[in-house]
Design a protein that fits this description.
Layout lengths: L4 E9 L5 E12 L7 E10 L3 E10 L14 E6 L3 H4 L4
Antiparallel strand pairs: 1-2, 2-3, 3-4, 4-5
């Protein structure tokens, strides 16, 4: 199996309560010209900061440096986040 892309993102939840909006930025690195590099925004909604429904890959800010289009077909994904504090809680 060959690695073709890697992705990293950072963002923040907004507001209080069990259901919160989420906004962030996203970078997709590419190996071997699999597809174009991507730097863009992502956003979604989360439940208890554990389950996120996210829309991403819709605007590529890297297009300023390349010949790719700015607006892209969006990707909708569902993520489950582990709470590492609860996993390693002592006592």
């Amino acid at each position: 199996m060959t690695l073709k892309t890697f992705e990293i993102g950072a963002g923040s939840y907004i507001g209080f309560g069990k259901i919160r909006p989420y906004l962030g930025f996203h970078y997709s690195g590419v190996f071997g010209n699999y597809r174009s590099t991507f730097i863009g925004a992502q956003g979604g909604i989360s439940y208890n900061r554990l389950i996120n429904i996210e829309i991403g890959h819709f605007a590529n800010f890297y297009s300023v440096f390349s010949e790719t289009g700015f607006f892209r077909a969006s990707r909708i994904s569902i993520h489950y986040m582990l709470n590492l504090s609860k996993l390693f809680k002592r006592g």
